[in-house]
Write a structure and sequence with these properties.
Keywords: Cell membrane, Membrane, Transmembrane, Transmembrane helix, Transport. It comes from Labilibaculum antarcticum. This protein starts with a helix and ends with a helix. The chain is mostly helical.
């Protein structure tokens, strides 16, 4: 068989493999989630595997089972603690009288409308009040608790299947850290087996550090936002909901903190509509802005260099360019997946294309 025939067969095989992954996308998603969970739980498994009680060592199956139980315990406690707070906050939002709220903000709204009209190109009047009423009404409707839980009940069957599948797969990934690698190796030619094994080991080590670091970053950012907002005067339940959302949005590089801060400001205004805007709401928004800015400074100086730079061994400017490119191609999802995907590409390039100077320079730290 000539070279063109080989390339044709390889291309055809890749296309068929892609179609297979697309057709079984749910199963692929379960496997990928299980891989991430196994990365997070791997330090616990390794710790337990190293324990010795006299001459007895903890079996790998027991270590994996205990770690899996701990992972689910943390998630159950998370939902059990925070879901009631979120539901209570959503109920409060759904009870807001939007028209009455707009009447209480009449004066600052009129000033903003006059300012926008003054500096607009055509000097046409701008009805800010109508825009706010429409947007806040839709936001409040989204917060309707009955709709939220109704949609959750409708997906319980699929959720149970997903949870069981993910748990089953995660257990075996925790029990045998090389199981996923061995499955991938089966798909490549024998002559490339050693290189692929080395690539998978490097990817596993880098991504495990990344996901573990990301997990702790979400917790720490959410905790700091919650404490800060509680100190500046927000009720603890409201501060927890905002902190939880801000921590999760922080996973999205660069624009995630802005989304979290805007959400917090909206909740801050919505829960204080019965007080004077200039003497109560405006100072509160200023204090909230200080909290979000302070948390971001700490995150940018302390957390992100450790996670986004050291964990994947890449320059911060390099990471920034990759994230911006991924965002322009695939939006927010692209920004979230940019760093893990770039890590995978760099490791593969180092193993198989290291004879190029450009690749050597980009991968010299891994």
């Amino acid at each position: 068989m000539n070279g063109k025939g080989k390339y044709f067969i390889v291309a055809l095989g890749l296309i068929l493999l892609g179609l297979l992954f697309w057709y079984f996308s749910n199963i692929v998603a379960y496997v990928l989630v299980s891989v991430v969970l196994s990365f997070v739980g791997r330090p616990v498994v390794d710790f337990m595997n190293g324990l010795k009680i006299k001459n007895w060592q903890v079996p790998s199956a027991l270590s994996a089972g205990i770690t899996l139980v701990l992972l689910w315990f943390v998630m159950v406690m998370f939902f059990r603690t925070f879901i009631p707070m979120i539901a209570a906050q959503a109920q409060d939002l759904s009870n807001i009288d939007v028209n009455a709220a707009m009447r209480s903000l009449e004066e600052p709204i009129q000033k903003l409308e006059a300012l926008v009209t003054k500096y607009s190109a055509d000097n046409e009047s701008f009805d800010l009040k109508a825009v706010l009423v429409d947007n806040i009404t839709s936001f409040v409707k989204i917060s309707d608790v009955s709709d939220i839980f109704g949609s959750l009940v409708g997906t319980l069957g699929n959720a149970f299947i997903a949870l069981f599948s993910i748990s089953f797969i995660t257990f075996f990934f925790l029990k045998d850290s090389s199981l996923f690698s061995e499955g991938v190796v089966l798909l490549v030619p024998a002559r490339n087996e050693d290189g692929v094994r080395h690539v998978l080991d490097s990817i596993k080590n880098l991504l495990m550090r990344y996901f573990v670091g990301l997990f702790f970053e979400v917790i720490l950012v959410g905790f700091m936002v919650t404490i800060g907002l509680t100190i500046v005067g927000l009720p603890f339940g409201t501060a927890v909901v905002i902190g939880l959302f801000a921590g999760m949005m922080n996973v999205i590089p660069y624009i995630g903190p802005i989304i979290g801060a805007c959400f917090g400001m909206i909740i801050g205004i919505a829960t204080n509509l019965n007080v004077d805007f200039y003497t109560e709401i405006l100072p509160l928004l200023g204090y909230m802005a200080i909290v979000f800015a302070t948390v971001q400074v700490i995150d940018n100086i302390l957390f992100q260099p450790l996670i986004y730079s050291n964990s994947v061994n890449a320059h911060p400017l390099e990471i920034f360019i990759v994230i911006i490119m991924a965002g322009s191609m695939a939006g927010i999802l692209g920004m979230v997946l940019a760093i893990p995907t770039y890590t995978l590409i760099r490791v593969i390039a180092k193993e198989f294309f290291n004879n190029y100077r450009f690749v050597k320079k980009l991968t010299e730290k891994i």
